[in-house]
Amino acid sequence: MLVQKYKDMLSGKSVIRQLSEFATARGKEIGYENVFDYSLGNPSVPVPQEFTDTMIHMLTTRETNELHGYSPSLGITSVREAVAASLEKRFGLPYRKEHIFMASGAAGALAHAFRLVTEPGDEILTFAPFFPEYHPYVDLTGAVLKVVPPDTENFQINFDMFEEMLTEKVMAVLVNTPNNPSGVVYSAATLKRLAALLSQKSEEYGHTIYLISDEPYREIVFAGVEAPCVSAFYDNTIMCYSFSKSLSLPGERIGYVAINPNCRDAEDMVNMCGQISRGIGHNCPPSIIQLAVAEVLDKTADLSVYETNMNLIYRELTELGFTCVKPGGTFYIFPKALEEDAKVFCQKALKYDLILVPGDSFGAPGYFRMAYCIDTEKVERSLEALRRFVREEYGR
To answer: Right CATH number for 4-47+302-394 from 3.40.190.10, 3.30.450.20, 3.90.1150.10, 3.40.50.1980?
Structure first.
């Protein structure tokens, strides 16, 4: 007999993926260059040349067993050492290889983090707006994801609701900064207040409440915006990182778990990740990709196009009368729709070949997401379609 819970999930497929598939099909009809597809957060800038050169050099100079064999369960030792050294240099925390576990992207890192600190029935809190896949990521572990309603004024943390929901059943709090879908970066003041509450409640409840920091957009931060290191504010932080966005490598599925060196039982937690991987199949990321990213840890793709695109779209949205918090990073923007039901709003936009994602699944009904990781030339052409949409449908 097929497992019913997975069968049930077939009727709740990702809205983002469904819209992306619609855009692809529409592109076959009119040419994809004429579809203004803001659905999927797939990096649009090339991989750094240094990464490509590194791959070519390794393929022509190293033994195939080293490049294509299984890595150790925790990751290649030299790679873990390089990641730790980079983190220590950047953030001033005494990371060592014993605090690093190599994972198959941020999703793989999160899969380990959730299982490290929760049992079935425990709760994890996150903050709207949030990445919709957090629900299956958490709920299928047996833990329960609960979502704190958004502070729509600035998309920082709604602390009144957070304090109300931070009960004894909560074992971890999950943050994503810079944030998908809002593009907002949590301020130092927000992180200080969050850390203070977690410390207070951990003592009150007699158990550690861990902070899990999902950081795939850490390097995409715009001019004039400070992006504090989450782990610097709270000792019991589990950092989950991916190179997907910083190096434009989403298909390579490579990232890591970094346990704050000041976290209680940090080294045991990394060793436990090796055991968790035995049960969930997220073990041994590709050796060649581990070795390659270790050579370019301080490099990124040319991320400047995302800020260029953001400024174009934000300016146009505000001129058209949209309410919108200006992103501080990522390649997403999250405006308020021009009518109460964002699903209806996004459905109307399809007539203009504008592919927008309603905010309901992000925990913020009435808003919509635009993933502007597309060519700037296409962004510029899409603005006329956006103007026509707003004029003809809403009289603006």
So the answer is: 3.90.1150.10
